Amino acid sequence: MRKILALLGAGAAGLVSLPAAANNYAECMKLVDMAPKRAYELAAQWRDYSGGIPAEHCMALSLFAQGQYEKAAVMLEDLSRRARQQAKASVPQAAPEVKLDKDGKREMSAEPEVLPPGLAIDLLSQAGNSWLMAENNEKSFRVLSEALGMNGISDDQAAEILIDRARAQVEMGNLEGGLKDLDMSLQRGGPRSEAYSYRAAAHRALGHFESARADIDKALMLDAENVDALLERANLNQAIGNSDAAIVDWIQVIKLAPDTPSAKAAVDSVNKVRAHQAEDEREAARPSTPGARQAQVPKPAAPAAAPPPAPAPAP
Fold it and tell me: Would you place residue 116 in the very low, low, confident or very high pLDDT band (cuts 50, 70, 90)?
């Protein structure tokens, strides 16, 4: 699972006074990683105290962290739509005066929160990623395409979105479309280990083993501990018949990312390959002598004797 980035800046923090675990966006995000159910509860309280889009964003990411990908996707799409509406309706004005209560905390204000530029694009990008995790690749492709067409999108945003849209296309069986998106991602965002790793997987699936190897080398040069790249190198080595090298990479994945789906896939692959190797060793150790082979093959039956000639007829 790709980690969803914390994309709201300092402008979304410290909006209201709540329990210490969720009194601002940064603290809420920390709680999402540690205790997503509790983060959701506190973010809901924050929303009720005029937390606005930042509070609901924390709620959506809490749902994502709990594996409720479809609910998170629906919520993130709605938040993106509302962020766009709010941006259109906002009028530039002087920053409001910050008032503190007796404890030195910022007082609640009826003023709408100031949303960071590009927030609507980020929210829609996260919605597309959530649909991808929910295995609804068609919706993921639609949402991510919409995000790519939005005004003001940066090269970094486009590069990340193109990687996710490539994944959706590959899942839908469009390997060539996925390759094109990954090419564009690298053009717009520069060298990225993740993009090279996914492009290697697409090349391998198309049988372009040399191109896959080149991309894997680039991915691991940028990030030697990229688990997806290590998995892909293992898959590539297995595809070309180098099982021993594949096992080395699978074991490295297990060490780097224990108790993850990647580690489970690596364990399953190692066990499967070692079982085949053990069977081959047993087969090679079985006795095989000429006499044994002859005993297993029945001899052809002798031809039937010709019947005796019929007696001549009496004169």
Answer: low
Question: Regarding predicted confidence, which is higher, 113 or 283?
Answer: 283
Q: Which amino acid is at 213?
A: R
Query: Which amino acid, residue 273?
Result: V
The two three-digit tokens of residue 178, written as one number: 């996925």
Mean pLDDT of 106-110: 49
**Quick one: tokens of 247?**
């096992």
Instruction: Please name the residues in contact with 101: beta carbons below 8 A apart, sequence gap of 6 or more.
Output: 17, 107
Give 47-51's long-range contacts (Cβ < 8 A, gap of 24+).
49/16, 49/17, 49/18, 49/108, 50/15, 50/16, 50/108, 50/109, 50/110, 51/15, 51/16
pTM of the model: 0.75
Selection from 154, 147, 134 nearest residue 64 by Cα: 134
Given a cut of 90, whether residue 33 has pLDDT beyond it is no
As a whole number of angstroms, the distance between CA 307 and CA 122 comes to 95
Backbone angles phi, psi at 106, to 5 degrees: -65, 135
CA angle 49, 51, 55 (to 5 degrees): 125
Over residues 262-286, the pLDDT tens digits come to 999 999 999 999 999 888 888 888 8
Q: Distance between CA atoms of 170 and 18, rounded to whole angstroms?
A: 44
